[in-house]
Amino acid sequence: MSLKNAPQPGSTDPSIIRNFCIIAHIDHGKSTLADRMLQLTGVVDERASRAQYLDRMDIERERGITIKSQAVRMPWTVPDGNAEGAEPGTYVLNMIDTPGHVDFTYEVSRSLEACEAAILLVDAAQGIEAQTLANLYLAMAADLHIIPVLNKIDLPSANVEKYAAELAGLVGCEPEEVLLTSAKTGVGVESLLNEIVKQTPPPVGDADAPARALIFDSVYDTYRGVVTYVRVVDGKLSHRDRIKMMSTNAVHEMLEVGVISPEPVKAGEIGVGEVGYLITGVKDVRQSRVGDTVTSQHHGATESLGGYKHPNPMVYAGLYPIDGDDYPTLRDALEKLQLNDAALTYEPETSGALGFGFRCGFLGLLHMEITRDRLEREFNLDLISTAPNVVYEVALDDGTEVEVTNPSEYPDGKVAEVREPVVKATILAPSDYIGTIMELCQLKRGNLQGMDYLSEDRVEMRYTLPMGEIVFDFFDQLKSRTKGYASLDYERSGEQAADLVKVDILLQGEPVDAFSAIVHREAAYSYGVMMAGKLKDLIPRQQFEVPIQAAIGARVIARETIRAIRKDVLAKCYGGDISRKRKLLEKQKAGKKRMKNIGSVEVPPEAFVAALATTQPAEKSGKK
Ligand SMILES: Nc1nc2c(ncn2[C@@H]2O[C@H](COP(=O)(O)OP(=O)(O)OP(=O)(O)O)[C@@H](O)[C@H]2O)c(=O)[nH]1
Predict the structure, then answer these.
(1) Is 479 assigned a ligand-binding role in the annotation?
(2) Which of 84, 164, 320, 394 is spaced 20 to 30 A from 563 at the CA atom?
């Protein structure tokens, strides 16, 4: 169908609108299916279609243009006599993209709020995974209609019967009701579009009420400022309105309203049930926050849609430039990133060992990895990041409470109680690995909350775990112990009191703040031994002997020694070539300039990088 004849934004009857999203575990084919739908609905023609149209962050960056397609409007005509029994006619489908990772659960929940149905996509060769479940629970909490779909049925290893039964059991339908697709070959995708029309409830809202729209994403664009994605619930938003953000009462001039199909298309207004974008000239995403309600300034709504939450960082780490001269660049870079990332926080910090840097707050490990990666790649910075830590609440003997986001701020002595954040974790794995997973969780101070068999040989285990144990190498260990078969998802779930201590690492009797860590008392010794051992290997020998100690307060719990030596760079230079000798000595001097001095001990930056690399990135699935 030609897009010109498609229903126009602003005057679309809500009864022909269908708002849906696709939820899936990483790699189960979400992007491929989305691309296929764009092609079939004629929004992107096959020739112009490049793989993964929705995933165009990189392309955008290269060309420095426009907008991330967070929500695409697709016209779809249901033919007469379709096998699905959907009412023939032309419909407007809005496909809303959801970020794929636990760090962004709140953003996911807002995107889901903007939909009426969710396609639960499962790989027919893999079955249900942890994120399938996590996303499904979020979708059920948002009251969405679930459409179960098995994808990749073209794969020789697909086991349609087994996984259709598993999926049906999970969703509570008959195995025959599970739809089958191959996003790759296109099989089943037309039927799926008809099913979406048939099964998704049309949006309901009051067209005559004051405007209310939910912000489900906001993105900073270099040229246009902040682009805010909204789903209109009541009334309409027009480009002539001045709009108000209900959480802050801030009023903004509206410059443009439109829909994405798949490029931005201006519209005069968008009405009940529609999904589109607003541009207001605001330059900072923090003024247009995900979860907030937009209304018009005049005769605006008095009650917001609810559910707005301020993003709170869960993980903190220090970021330091390896070259101290890069400090201003790092500051500017963080300022720029924050324009596009309402959840990123930072404040200046100084470390005795690393110099000037920033204490940054992140939603989780993946968020931290992404941010660091972008700083290094987009701003050409070499960074040292200190080991990430969670936020501890420390009650002192005198009744005061402090929040510790940096181990070096941990109060010495007089601590009455320390509370640490806890997560509820869901682990899915083949049942053969139950023993090894239990062992790992026990080691990480986990408590088993329950266990269910999803099928004969797959099990779901639910644990509560201290978040501080997960931010280290938990995910990596889980993967290696289960040969990659386990999947993990977790969400924050309150605090608990714990017996935690601060372990300091001392070089020649001087504490190195970058290596301090808050750990469970039982793990303190092994942390001390591990760190001292690592540093012994990483720090080059000096002209004098260097003791490395790990200590809790004044009590030393581990010790290593680096023996003295002077590296004679001239050793191989017999004969009398004075200029060559001078060159070598200068090279040595230049190398020394880059060293970080801890007291009189010279430590190469690489030693910090390697010593702090105890943490591993979390599952890299949230790139969208
Ligand atoms: N054989 C086959 N491969 C598929 C099918 N759908 C997707 N794939 C492949 O599976 C891989 C993952 O697909 P994506 O669409 O990137 O998966 P995704 O869920 O969007 O993954 P992320 O973007 O990483 O979250 C790609 O290599 C696809 O080509 C299918 O129906 N059949």
Answers:
(1) no
(2) 320
What tens digit of pLDDT does each residue of 203-231 get? 999 999 999 999 988 888 778 888 899 99
- Percent of the chain whose pLDDT exceeds 70: 87
What is each CA distance from 149 to 179, 263, 487, in whole angstroms?
A: 5, 28, 20
Q: Token pair for residue 548?
A: 């490395």
Q: Is the predicted pLDDT of residue 282 greater than 90, yes or no?
A: no
The per-residue DSSP string of 117-151 comes to EEEEEEETTT---HHHHHHHHHHHHTTPEEEEEEE
C-alpha 186 to ligand 1 mean position (Å)? 12
pTM above 0.80, yes or no: no
Domains of the chain: 3-199 (3.40.50.300), 212-296 (2.40.30.10), 315-386 (3.30.70.870), 393-431+451-468+479-498 (3.30.70.240), 501-596+605-611 (3.30.70.2570)
Q: Are the C-beta atoms of 94 and 72 separated by less than 8 Å? A: yes
- The interface pTM score, or ipTM, of the predicted complex is 0.97
CA 624–ligand 1 middle distance (angstroms): 14
Site to probe by mutation for ligand 1, drawn from 31, 128, 189, 621 as the one with most ligand atoms within 8 Å of Cβ, is 31
